[in-house]
Amino acid sequence: MTSDAVRRIEVKELGPEDIELIRQIDRSEYIDTLYTVKDGRLHANSVEIDVPQWDAEGHGEHSSARRITEFRPVVDGGAVLLGAFIDDLLAGIAIVDPSFEGTTAWFAFLHVSRAYRRRGVASALWAAGEEVANNAEATSMYVSATSSGSAVGFYISRGCQLADPPHPALLAKEPEDIHLICPVT
Ligand SMILES: CC(C)(COP(=O)(O)OP(=O)(O)OC[C@H]1O[C@@H](n2cnc3c(N)ncnc32)[C@H](O)[C@@H]1OP(=O)(O)O)[C@@H](O)C(=O)NCCC(=O)NCCS
């Protein structure tokens, strides 16, 4: 769908069964900043957190199997699964529901494997997600973002702002997340 010849990032629309590729993502990350929202503003808090890879075994809270179970119904319900590849190797995955609510799309999932970060992979997935949203005539994208410096930093770099008010159901599902709304350009 989208390719970046310079960085050789290729984004493809995948089939619903490819949700299993989530198992290949290395989500591990050292987090030094977590954001909170106070009085309608973002506040950065210093932390030292080593996030391990998802558990490859079992179906626990931090397993890749749990992520697949959580997002399979979203994809089966019409959301688009996008994979970013560098030299034919999976670098990142995103899920975009272009018809979430009215003219608002939902960027439901975004993970770039640790080895591929800061190379424009998430940006390429975002651009492809915007294309999907645009094709469905969505004018904004909702994101319930992990509160880490990397996730919030990425979405702010895409022009996202605090959602006011946050989406009630998504806020109830992820109350610790930073809820953002972004223009679809
Ligand atoms: C957040 C994440 C998806 C970003 O992916 P990425 O491919 O590294 O992002 P890009 O290279 O496209 O970065 C684009 C811009 O986002 C911002 N950004 C990316 N990582 C950042 C970080 N660690 N801290 C601050 N800003 C960051 C920067 O403005 C960056 O531009 P620059 O590299 O020119 O400075 C990736 O770090 C990740 O998968 N993290 C773990 C999972 C996660 O938090 N997912 C989001 C869940 S909602």
Description:
The chain is of the alpha+beta class. It has a single domain, classed as 3-Layer(aba) Sandwich (Aminopeptidase). The protein contains four helices and ten strands; from the N terminus they run E-E-E-E-H-E-E-E-H-E-H-E-H-E. The protein has an eight-stranded mixed β-sheet, with helices on both faces. A two-stranded antiparallel sheet has the order 3-4. A hairpin with a 4-residue loop joins strand 1 and strand 2 (9-14). The protein is globular and about 45 Å long. The two termini are 17 Å apart. The model has no long low-confidence stretch (mean pLDDT 96). The structure holds coenzyme A. Coenzyme A (COA) is lined by residues 27, 29, 110-112, 117-123, 145-146, 148-151, 153-154, 157. Coenzyme A binds next to strand 7, helix 2 and helix 3.
